[in-house]
Amino acid sequence: MATIRYTVPGLERGDAEQVVDILQHRLHALNDLQLTLKHVHWNVVGPNFIAVHEMLDPQVDAVRGFVDDVAERIATLGGSPNGTPGALVKDRTWDDYSIGRDQAIAHLGALDVVYTGVISDHRTQIEKVGALDPVTEDMLIAQAGELEQYQWFVRAHLENADGSLNTQGKAGEQGAADASR
């Protein structure tokens, strides 16, 4: 648990420490997401290359903004954000993105899985911070809304005429990538 010496008015130090710990994990997840999105941006090929390539840059920029917002909220609460690659790798609970140079549609299938994980975790943490700090809750809610929209952009490429996703029920990035091809 984070140890802080001060926090914002109206928030107990113990509650702030809990929120800082939650936010540190969100910081890692968002840093990983923005790096993954840029990796995909560089490694997409095929007929949908330019559409996917250009769709991803605004997502990268927005997620980088989320990273900054989370880090600054940690500092505002009296914590010390840790954005080093070593801390991210040590603390993460997920594997590295597993797709290299591949068809755009395969990357989109894998990104659907990535977004599902990040959004699900964001929603879980929203519930946890809601009772502790409504300001942090609001920040995470706004981020979740944008992340959900980005996933919709990805899923629009994966949707079948009947409304189903070709990644539905597939386990892991590789399974989703394979199902998308």
UniProtKB/TrEMBL annotation:
Entries under SUPFAM superfamilies matching the protein: Ferritin-like
GO-annotated molecular function: DNA binding; ferric iron binding; oxidoreductase activity, acting on metal ions
Secretion signal, residue range per the UniProt entry: none
Keyword Chloroplast: no
Claim: DNA-binding is one of the keywords in the record: yes
Domain Ferritin/DPS: 21-161
UniProt entry keywords in alphabetical sequence: DNA-binding
Membership in a protein family: Belongs to the Dps family.
The protein, known as: Starvation-inducible DNA-binding protein
Source organism of the structure: Pseudonocardia alni
Lineage: Bacteria, Bacillati, Actinomycetota, Actinomycetes, Pseudonocardiales
